[in-house]
Amino acid sequence: MAEYKGVQLKAIKEWGEHDLAGFTANIYLNNMKIGAVVDKGFGGPLHVYLEKQKDTFLKIASTYKDEDGIYANDEALLHRLRVLSGIEKDFKKANKKGYSFITTVDYFPRDENGKITYGKPIREPAEETYFFNNDQQLQQMLNVKKPSKYEVFRTLDDFVIN
After folding, report:
1. 135: pLDDT confidence band, cut at 50, 70 and 90?
2. Which pLDDT tens digit goes with each residue over 63-75?
3. In this structure, are residues 27 and 33 in contact, taking their beta carbons and an 8 Å threshold?
4. Which of 94, 98, 91, 97 is CA-nearest to residue 151?
5. What residues make up the domain containing 110?
């Protein structure tokens, strides 16, 4: 299950799409429910409701940095866990259908350090997921599509953020 230092999201419910997408989820720490999170889908901040272990959760969340190493806060962590949970769900379905691994790609413009810059995506859709049985298929897709970034998920351990 998607996790960072014992923090997980469970019972994730999503609605809408793109700019008006929202979600709710329960927040767990070491398999104990400690609160909930709500994204109303209107571009504002997440609403985090912690019933217990607030200091521990905030301390853990403060150590998290997103893929670009920019943010270190609870919102960035909770968003990443939600995304990873969705990818993990796709991964499990793909495995049942016989695929060995999945890859997510994005086409957002990036600077020389690999950080996303603002601007129109290089291609549409801006993000895609692919299912593969071998590394040759992956390499062929990378050569053709030329994404700005990609992540490969081969096992359930790949959904644990270190």
Report:
1. very high
2. 998 776 766 689 9
3. yes
4. 91
5. 3-161
